[in-house]
Specification:
about 0% strand
Length: about 80
């Protein structure tokens, strides 16, 4: 009778046999940490930035001289094709 009270496991917490996958745990940690860090962008600023971005390439191309465009193209070709490997 005393032994039954000492060795009783009724009050002990049972352990789960099934362990979570490490990837599931990592994904939940990432989700928890990034959910709070959402950056709210100003829609007017986004529209203005897009407007400038749409015009930027054309304006730059119009302002470059032919010699400068050739120089930029040669540098790009060297970077792309000049690598050994």
């Amino acid at each position: 009778m005393i032994f039954d009270r000492i060795c009783s496991t009724d009050s002990m917490q049972k352990r789960s046999r099934k362990r979570k996958d490490t990837n599931v745990i990592a994904a939940s940690i990432v989700e928890q940490t990034t959910d709070e860090a959402h950056i709210v962008k100003n829609p007017a600023a986004v529209a203005l930035g897009r407007l400038g971005g749409l015009n930027g390439g054309k304006a730059r191309a119009a302002s470059l001289t032919r010699a400068r465009r050739v120089e930029i193209a040669k540098k790009a070709a060297q970077a792309r094709w000049g690598k050994s490997g």
